[in-house]
Structure prediction request, 403 residues.
Amino acid sequence: MSVLRIYASLSDPPTRCQWALVNDGQEPVLGEGTLAQLPSHAARVQLVIPAAQALLARTRVPSAARHRAGPVLAFAVEDQTVDEPDANQVSWLGAAGEDDIVAVIDKAGLERWRTALSAAGLRNYELHCETLLLPWARSEWSLAWNGREGFARIGEREGGATDCGERAAPPLSLRLWLEAAKARDAAPASIALYATVPGAEPDIDAWTRELGVAVRFAGAWDWRAAPPDAGVVLAQERQRWGALNGIAARLRPAAWILAAAVVLHAGALVVDWALLASEQRPLRQQMESRFRALFPDAVAVTDPALQMRRKLAEARHAAGRADNGDFLPMIEQVAAGMKAVPECSLRVLSYESGRMTLEIAAPSEERVNRLVTALTQAGLGVVRSGAAKPRGAAAAVLTVRAP
Prediction:
């Protein structure tokens, strides 16, 4: 499988670039020129950011923010960057022990390249860091060195650019990384040094003595010649709308069928609603006429069912009989319902005009639901609302009415 690898310096305008077309088992094809001159037949495209322009940092982020780039990740590394959090694109790469590894890249520079690549017809590509293209093996670090400075891969997803060093003295940043690794009991057994330019090999013995870790010369290395599957993808850039255009055209007939079905369903609902409304009117008129026949002194009839129930309660009270909406009959029904769910406890009870309000505490929501079912089966109308929850329990306010 062919991979087009583009070297993108975010500090330079995206007009020209170095590139390499890499194939398994073959010598890479190298080139340099404008973006319009890039090869167009590669199966994969990788945008490679220089090591000095990508910060690979250790931090700790909320688990919910790990699998997406966003402001939470940017603020997690605010103390390790000199820019405002909004100026960086931060991607979560993975976990390293109890810490998280994130990649920090200049957002403005990346956006310039994204726009230029889109104009050149490249919309789907992987974002890579030069540091993580270096070879990596457990218990060994890799260092790319040009005779004065370089960059190191100190873990599967960790590394960074070094400061300056000398032929007989390694860079200070490499020593600091080793000290931090020793503190985590993760120091390497050796360091493989790769030369990025001819004659860059330092004094290996002197470096070994200075670092206290075996340094070996591993030969020449170039980002252009790294294997196609080398490195870790920092982000996947995709142009979605172009791919969706063809899908939308294919789905257009189905969309018309769905729209027609929705219109027919809406029409059926309107017809059904009109029929129910026409049936409701004569029923209400019949209820009003019966109410007026029984109570001719009534001035206005707004809700015949409710007014009839109130008149019936007045008649029962005048005859010395209890009504279903009185306190004693209602509390008996409530007690019967709560007896079926003994785990629920009554915190507050109030009664007014045939309506009883109960504030309930229970060990779980399932117990509250069981209580509502029990009260309903006891013949009461129940409406539930929220309440302040005790710690480790569930709570609800139940408004109970007689049938």
Remarks:
- The two ends are 75 Å apart (CA to CA).
- The chain has a mean pLDDT of 84.
